[in-house]
Design a protein that fits this description.
mainly alpha, 11 strands
């Protein structure tokens, strides 16, 4: 195309954005940024009955979170404002009136009761559903009579009864629909609000949209849009219908596959760069092996030719793996900055706020490589803050011997008081202690680990002790002695 690329993301605030929805936004954004074009956000809010409070804010927050900035739209404005369809009603009324005047549309006075009876009869007779075009052939006199009676009406598009509607899809090639299989669809409802088909076409024209990149589910709506473009004398954009996203079992993606809204993934501790990368690979690839991309690499390499015609598979295990990779790649300062909201939320309220960042710098590196999400960090590090550990005496006994263990723990306390509190000296001293007691190192260290952390598995013992600090470690062993002795 000779004209500049202009693409749009046009969500409806009737729910919170899921991964498929944001994946569509991402592909549009990547195409705009790759080509030096413009990315618009338009809010299709004409279905007022289904509007969900908070969904608009969630949509914009989701875009911001993964870094999809928009050139025109809510909050930033632009030359084609307003970018809310509910504020553009005069444009749709003008287009509908023009279609009626040119004979491409007509008023339909059928009541909801008649339409429901028609639908039931079609089901009974096992015929395809669709409007029976009763009002299509009404005479001017019949229409005047209905108007004089105050009958409410919708405006329907007059679909050609014969022929084909053909368009070229960038991903699927030539697509052909038989006009006889399309019904006369509604353009304007009785309340004066447009349906999606009309508002979509009018806005894409006036906003000079060059490419419509949308989900495969809208493919069957495209012939209706092509017919309207032709009837209104508009030049249609280029269409590309993106593949579906399916679960690992190749069924429709749902919550049982781990699907969630984008803000839920944020709150579960996934990084925005992870989600950007992961979503890009749900239907697009650079090659058969590359899986990790920076934002700029995605922009540089994105092309519609590499968008798949087959469904992308949502794999939660791959998402967790990828998030772990991105987490491990963060600098310590960045890691702590991103972890702090989760730590502040989950750590006990009696832990002093703000959290001591020097203390964080001591223990965060010990669990940094184990976390797959930011939300796992408080659970991995809670014992660094817990004053009282829930430990059963049996869990720390050495050779299941109370007297032996008490004697060893008193030796541990004495050793901690006199040995330099660093990893190498501690490890050297306690290995020597194990040898002098004819214990395997693991027998001593496992008991000590449980006394210090409350866990049988933890980061390396002596690094953990150093990060925790001498006074806190001594207190843990003193508490353990009390548990063992029953005092």
């Amino acid at each position: 195309m000779d004209k500049p690329v202009r693409v749009r993301y046009a969500p409806s605030p009737t729910g919170f954005p899921h991964v498929g929805n944001i994946r569509t936004a991402l592909f549009n954004w990547l195409w705009a940024r790759h080509t030096g074009g413009k990315f618009l956000v338009r809010i299709e809010d004409t279905d007022t009955a289904r509007t969900v409070p908070g969904s608009l804010e969630s949509i914009l927050d989701s875009l911001r979170w993964i870094g999809l900035d928009w050139d025109e739209g809510p909050e930033v404005g632009g030359p084609h404002s307003p970018y809310f369809q509910s504020q553009r009603l005069p444009l749709y009324h003008q287009a509908a009136a023009a279609l009626v005047k040119s004979g491409h549309a007509y008023k339909c006075y059928c009541t909801a009761e008649r339409l429901e009876a028609m639908r039931i009869e079609q089901q009974k007779n096992k015929v395809p559903p669709g409007y029976d075009r009763k009002c299509r052939s009404m005479s001017d006199r019949e229409r005047q009579e209905m108007e004089s009676q105050g009958a409410k009406s919708v405006i329907r598009f007059k679909v050609p009864l014969e022929g084909q509607t053909v368009f070229n899809d960038l991903l699927r090639g030539e697509v052909v629909f038989e006009n006889r299989n399309l019904d006369d669809f509604v353009l304007l409802k009785t309340d004066g609000f447009p349906v999606y088909h009309l508002a979509n076409v009018v806005d894409d024209h006036w906003m000079q949209i060059s490419h419509v990149l949308r989900a495969e589910e809208w493919l069957s709506s495209t012939p209706r849009h092509i017919l309207m473009y032709q009837a209104l004398g508009y030049e249609p954009p280029v269409f590309a219908h993106m593949p579906l996203i399916l679960g690992p079992d190749r069924s429709k993606l749902s919550k049982r596959h781990g699907a969630a809204t984008l803000t839920e993934y944020r709150d579960q501790g996934y990084l925005p760069e992870t989600m950007l990368n992961f979503l890009a690979l749900l239907g697009w690839s650079l090659d058969e092996k590359t899986e990790l991309f920076t934002r700029q690499q995605l922009v540089d390499n994105f092309s519609l030719e590499r968008v798949s015609r087959t469904a992308g598979i949502f794999n939660r295990e791959k998402l967790d793996w990828m998030n772990g990779v991105y987490l491990r790649g963060l600098s310590l300062d960045d890691y702590i900055r991103r972890a702090l909201p989760f730590l502040n939320k989950e750590l006990p309220p009696d832990v002093p706020r703000p959290l001591d960042e020097n203390y964080l710098r001591g223990w965060i590196p010990l669990i940094k490589d184990r976390a797959r999400t930011l939300a796992e960090i408080p659970q991995l590090g809670w014992f660094f803050y817990q004053d009282k550990l829930s430990i059963a005496p049996a869990d720390i006994l050495i050779k299941n011997n109370q007297t032996l263990t008490l004697d060893i723990y008193h030796k541990i306390e004495d050793t901690l008081e006199r040995v330099p509190f660093n990893k190498d000296d501690l490890e050297k001293e306690f290995r020597a202690m194990a040898a002098s007691l004819t214990l395997k190192p693991g027998e001593l260290f496992n008991s000590m680990r449980t006394a210090v952390t409350g866990r049988t598995v933890s980061p390396p013992l002596f690094e953990t002790m150093v990060a925790m600090g001498k006074s806190r470690v001594l207190k843990r062993f003193q508490d353990a002695v009390q548990k063992i002795s029953g005092s």
